[in-house]
Design a protein that fits this description.
Oligomer: single chain
Largest sheet: 4 strands, parallel
Helix content: 25-40%
Number of helices: 15
Structural class: alpha/beta
Strand order of the largest sheet: 4-3-5-6
Order of helices and strands: EHEHEHEHHEHEHEHHHEHEHHEHHEEE
Radius of gyration: 23 Å
């Protein structure tokens, strides 16, 4: 990536896959370095290969954002154009034929007028759109964020196995989602039906078998469907190199309690029923699920469509990084589980998985990263007192056990004013 972009430090760039500017803002809350998204990354690949390219998007407001970040990355002189089709995202669904033709025509203009040699589609991976652009333009087309099919997954896993890396999978099968009912309006039940357990189960089954055939390591992100636990348990018993995580929102929230229009609860995979939650806890206790991660995914208020409460329109993601320990401790102590067990799930095991040899434990030779945690104290979540940038959480008003009194990072107290974070690399000892 040296020819594309370089920032100060030991790395070249942080690339965010999908979700546009609001996703970038969420990462930027956690990182003290610039963040670029997948559209830029795809465009950067085209430039690295020595070709001009054009980004075609359906969102007018993203055009200046893309332009600004391309300039930041030093790519502006190689960008033939950054244009907009003038269509809104919803028109891709409500009038797909018109949308395909309008976007394809814009791509054709970029090739003929701006001499673009590659088209980057920043408007979703519609197969008919890609085919039409290729037909009209005769140049390579790069999808913004396409899913892998099972054979592509296997091919990539074979490559990863050759150097003992790990395939990390957001496990929802796109075919199952395409055939599910479409989400609409403010009814959470309809959104839940649009992301069925079967989508997770099918994708996880594919991961398991491809891991079996290739010998590759695989990690299942943010498990939501408890239906998948038996096959995951069997796969582990068979000796497959498989790890599994879940998240606080799947362990503490339930579909039954989500009000109409409460889009702050929307995430993918979705929060499921109370019975599903209890089975996830059992999966943690018996070791089928290895650890708990935040999946911290903040959003600006407008992108959650709070005014209308439409789950089909609202962006998905739950911001919970600040609350995670208290959330899990509240539920764990009710189940008779120890704080030491919770720390293992939320600190020690994630550090081991990531290969952070100096993290995850309070022990000689480890970094002095720790908190003073008042396990018997309690508080009520107030969205106005949260430290993350956008004041939005599904936990507002929820009573939690356990209060973080103070935190040390690498031996220094976190004061919420002086950034002390740094990039962590696998195997770091300093």
């Amino acid at each position: 990536m040296d020819k594309v972009v370089r920032y100060e430090g030991e790395y070249d760039a942080v690339i965010q896959a999908g979700y546009g500017e609001h996703g970038r803002e969420g990462l930027q809350e956690l990182l003290a370095v610039p963040v670029i998204d997948i559209t830029e990354a795809a465009a950067s690949t085209a430039m690295y290969l020595g070709r001009s390219y054009s980004v075609v998007t359906t969102l007018d407001r993203t055009v200046p954002l893309i332009e600004d970040r391309l300039i930041l990355a030093g790519l502006h002189d190689r960008c033939a154009s950054v244009r907009s089709s003038g269509l809104g995202v919803l028109e891709l669904e409500s009038d797909p034929e018109r949308a395909v033709e309008a976007i394809a025509a814009e791509a054709q203009r970029a090739v003929e007028v701006d001499r673009a040699e590659v088209i980057v589609l920043g408007c979703g991976g519609m197969a008919e759109l890609k085919d039409r652009v290729v037909e009209l333009c005769g140049v390579p087309v790069v999808d913004e964020f396409p899913p892998l099919d099972a054979d592509e997954l296997e091919e990539d896993m074979r490559e990863l196995a050759s150097f003992d890396s790990v395939m990390i999978v957001h496990a929802e099968d796109s075919r199952a989602i395409d055939r599910a009912p479409q989400p609409e309006g403010d009814d959470y039940g309809k959104f839940l039906a649009s992301r069925p357990r079967g989508a997770e189960n099918l994708a996880i089954a594919e991961v398991i078998e491809r891991a079996r055939w290739t010998g590759a390591r695989a990690h299942i992100l943010h498990l939501s469907s408890s239906d998948a636990l038996p096959m995951l348990r069997t796969a582990k018993q068979d000796g497959l190199k498989l790890t599994v995580e879940t998240c606080p929102h799947y362990l503490t929230l339930t579909a039954e309690e989500i009000p109409h229009g409460a889009t702050q609860f929307k995430c993918c995979p979705p929060i499921r029923e109370a019975g599903n939650r209890e089975l996830l806890w059992q999966g943690l206790e018996d070791g089928t699920i290895d650890f708990i991660v935040s999946d911290h995914s903040p959003s600006t208020l407008d992108l959650k469509d709070l005014e209308n409460g439409d789950f089909a329109v609202a962006w998905g993601g739950v911001a919970s990084l600040q609350l995670g320990l208290s959330l899990i401790w509240t539920e764990a102590r009710q189940r008779g589980l120890s704080l030491e067990t919770v720390v293992g799930w939320m600190s020690e095991r994630p550090a081991q998985f990531a290969g952070l040899t100096g993290k995850g434990r309070i022990a000689p030779g480890y970094d002095a990263d720790f908190s003073v945690f008042a396990a018997d104290d309690a508080y009520v979540v107030d969205v106005a007192k949260l430290h993350h940038k956008n004041p939005l959480t599904p936990y507002h008003g929820k009573a939690l056990a356990g209060v973080v009194r103070k935190t040390w990072l690498h031996g220094e107290v976190v004061d919420f004013e002086t950034p002390r974070g740094r990039l962590l690399r696998r195997g770091m000892t300093e």
